[in-house]
Description:
The complex is a heterodimer.
Chain A: E1 13-15, H1 34-59, H2 73-80, E2 88-90, H3 96-101, H4 106-112, H5 139-151, E3 158-163, H6 170-181, E4 186-192, E5 195-196, E6 199-200, H7 213-216, E7 221-225, H8 229-244, E8 250-255, H9 274-281, H10 285-295, H11 301-328, H12 345-364
Parallel strand pairs in A: 1-7, 2-3, 3-4, 4-8, 7-8
Antiparallel strand pairs in A: 5-6
Helix pairs in contact in A: 1-2, 1-10, 1-11, 2-8, 4-11, 5-6
Chain B: E1 3-4, H1 6-20, E2 24-28, H2 44-48, E3 53-55, H3 60-73, E4 76-80, H4 91-98, H5 101-104, E5 114-119, H6 134-138, E6 144-146, H7 151-163, E7 168-173, H8 174-177, E8 182-183, E9 197-200, E10 205-209, H9 214-228, E11 232-236, E12 239-241, H10 245-255, E13 258-265, H11 270-282, E14 291-295, H12 303-309, H13 313-325
Parallel strand pairs in B: 2-3, 2-4, 4-5, 5-7, 6-7, 10-11, 10-13, 13-14
Antiparallel strand pairs in B: 1-8, 6-12, 9-11
Helix pairs in contact in B: 1-7, 3-4, 9-13, 10-11
Amino acid sequence: MPRSKIDIPCHVDYLSILDETGTVDKELEPDISDDFLLDIYKAMVLGRRFDERMLNLQRQGRIGTFPPITGQEAAQLGTVAHLRQSDWFVPSFREMVAEIWRGRAMETFLLYYSGYNEGVDIAEDQNNLPLSVPVGSQTLHAVGLAWAVRYRKKDDVAMTWFGDGATSEGDFHEAMNFAGVFRLPVIFVCQNNQWAISVPLSKQTRSKTLAQKALAYGFPGIQVDGNDVLAVYTAAKEAVERARAGDGPTMIECVTYRMMMHTTADDPKRYRSDEEVEGWRKKDPITRFEKYLIDKNLLEPKKIESVDQEVKEQIQQAVDKAEKLMKELGDPLDMFNHAYAQLPPHLEVQKAYLAKELAETMEKE
Amino acid sequence: MPKLTMVQALNMALKQEMEKDDAVIVLGEDVGLDGGVFRVTDQLYQQFGENRVVDTPLAETAIVGMSIGMAIYGLKPVCEIQFSGFSYQNFHQIENHASRMRWRSQGRFGVPMVLRTPYGGGVRALEHHSESREAFWSHMPGLKMVIPSGPRNARALLVSAIRDPDPVIFYEAKALYRAFREEVPEEEETMPIGKSQIAREGNDLTMISYGAMTRPTMEAASELAEKDGVEAEVVDLLTLSPLDDDLFTESVKKTGKAMIIHEAPMSYGPGAEILARLVEKSFYYLEVPVERVTGFDIIIPLFNRENHYIPSVKRILRTARKMMDGMK
């Protein structure tokens, strides 16, 4: 009856392979083909440049509010790189480059952030959920998808992304608990970018890590240098293999940084210092990966330039395509699309009402 | 009197109530150092400190649930849910607890809290940032549902809401936040919750609206007067629950015609209740069928098409003229 200690195996791995100077830990270095390394590199550059271009467009008033991803390219690509086509992709709202990796057409981002519902366009063969704004809520859908995958005896996995702020939401904890209880093939990817709008991580949790939250739900959590694409890749590989083998969920905490504003409607100068941001600039995920690839003789200045050029052309094409589409789209009546599988009678009436109003306006003009 | 935007007027109400009563606590996401994403709580953190202006972790259920606890203790929490689109996370705390604690404790505990939250479209926002779901809260017994229509009444009603012994859901129209300025007196001003007001007098037609839609309604009324010689009476509800049905039913007894304008979807929206009251209390005075000009029964589209969703001056006029023509 005495007071005793219950022994709870308790540790969280921390993984860093490519440090901020671009020095690689040879023992931990993952085995990735040259082509795939370059694919990841190109995607990282694409994400960065597209982010910059979107910010530019937003500041010119050509698109609306959007959440930039700069600084989080490694966290997104190192994880999503492991998904097969049939796996389930369950994003939050700051996974632009992961979405592109999963096949979302770049122009759709521009349409979406210009207020066109058509900016969501998911092909029949893509198991990608649309981005989800209510923080943490999508994590439960990943759990449901994973449950269904197992029920249908497939070996697909569901991977879901969220931020540090989401770990305060009930939905997140409920998702983690369900995933643990049912031992589901889910990978929880936390992009811990240190800030939930103006609230720093220190005000979000008293926990030493976010990864340790997984331990309470009975499955492994690992913290990685989220700006180190090799570390993220390695941790995600283990997690996906575990899930596919039927050994249950994993949480990966990618320690990274939101280099830009929460969304373009936000002004971070009100709540954080430039010094802090500059400190993280030195840890940039692309700079160090570039050095790694140069050291491996996979990149040289000319190649870097050609990748940049290639990416810029891709972006320009997307912008042109979006602007062309915007001229074709925009029929107000389309707002009634997808309300239900079949439009109920009362909505037919409302749609006709709007059509009549539009026709009258046309007549007058 | 200073001329303030609605954001500034709401800020004034919070500041003055906090100065007056140390039981008033502001809490929510980004309400502290950042001053709220719309700046309604600007500088309150600097003035009152982190114990009275609390930046919480990101969890709507917790913000509301904790507010309920604070209110039971006797504090007067004014919590902010950043966008009403995220208030469904805390729905069960309102439905299961805030709205019924008085009843459930046989009067021992009240929940004198205010839940402030921006609602409505018209500001080119992202998904979940433009809905009008006031009907949810108006439908809940035990709650009060207030929606101001301008800086001055927003300030006065927020003060009343903070002092109210029952939980108040306080909807702030984003489209009005910085749309115009009004003179707002520095000295204390309150307005009774549960009372509507006549925003414009007229004898020909009664237009019933609230919140963001009072502006296009007033504009339409002016144009009717100018171009059609029709004098519309505009009733600004200000509170949706408890609904003051005296003013608008009396108005309809005078005009014989009523139209209801709101941004929320039509079916089961506030207009349905207003219409029911009209039928109950002024049926025999109605000369033409009551008309509703509302949002459609679909998710408000992303912002490129939202102006075709939200009732416009044009749409209000079209309906008003149809009603007047029906009289010829």
